[in-house]
Amino acid sequence: MTARSTRDPPEELSLRAHRRIVGTIGFFLPALVYGFAAARPTAGLDRWQLLWSVSAYYYTGAVGVFVGALFALALFLFSYRGYKGVIADRIVGGVGGLAALVVALFPTSAPGDLPEPTWWGDTTAVVHYVAAVVLFLSFIVFALWLFRRSDIPERRDRPPDKRFRDDVCLGCGLVMIAAVTWAAVAKYQDTPIFWPESIAIVAFAISWLVKGEAHWPLLRGAKKLMGGASPPP
C-alpha cells in the first residue's frame, strides 16, 4: 500500500470521517435491531426469532434504533459533498437520503398478528418497498461508479491502495446487486428477506468504510498488537 501524508487537508479528513460514519451506521444496523428487539420483547412475537425483514423491526422494541439509524443515514447522505466539482455525488446522496427518510416514515406491513397503525394502508407498504429499492440503487451507484472514479484514467497507474479500494467497492456493488435480486425473488415467492436485506446493508457499509479508508486504523492497530512497525496513516 502507498504511504499517506499525516497532514491531509481538513476537507479530506472530514470527507473520510463522513464516509466512515455512514458505513458504521449501516454495518451494525441488522445486528442492532435484532439485539434490541430481543432485549425489549414484543408481545405476540418470538423473542429470538428473526423477523420477515429488517424493516419489520419497526414494530418491535428496536423501532428507535431502526428509525433513528435511517434518519441519521439520511442526514449524512443529504450533507455528503463528495469530491469537489462532482455534482453526481450530491445528487445520488440526496436521492439516497430522501429514500432513507421515506423508508423510515412509510413502514412495511406488521409481522405476525401484530396490527398496523390506523393510518397504515397497502399504499404505505408499496411506497416503502419502492423507497427501499431506490435507497439500495443509490448505494450500488456509489459502490460501482462514484467510489471508483479517479483522476488517473488507467487503473494500472493508480496507487495500490486505490486499486484495492476500487476492487472492494466493485465486489460490494456486485454483492448488493445479487442480494437485492435475491430479496426481490424472495418477496415474489412470499418468503423472508431478512438475510438478503442484511447482506446488502453490510455490503453497502463495507464499501463506505473502505472508501473512508477505515482499514488504515485497523492495520495500524494490528501492527501494534504484533509488535511491528505501524503502517503510515
Description:
With 233 residues, the chain is mainly α. It has one domain. The protein has 7 helices and no strands. The N terminus is likely disordered.
Q: Would you kindly provide a brief summary of this structure?
A:
The protein is mainly alpha-helical and about 230 residues long. It is built from seven helices and no strands.
Topology:
Blueprint: H1 10-39, H2 63-78, H3 87-105, H4 122-144, H5 160-188, H6 194-211, H7 215-225
Helix pairs in contact: 1-2, 1-6, 2-3, 3-4, 4-5, 4-6, 5-6
- The secondary structure category is mainly alpha
Query: What is the mean pLDDT?
Result: 88
Helix percent band: 55-70%
Q: Which strand-content bin applies to the residues?
A: under 5%
Radius of gyration: 19 Å
Q: Total strand count, please?
A: 0
Q: Outline the low-pLDDT stretches.
A: 1-7
Order of helices and strands: HHHHHHH
Number of domains: 1
Q: How many distinct helices?
A: 7
Task: Sum up the overall morphology in one term.
Answer: elongated
First and last CA, distance = 11 Å
Largest sheet: none
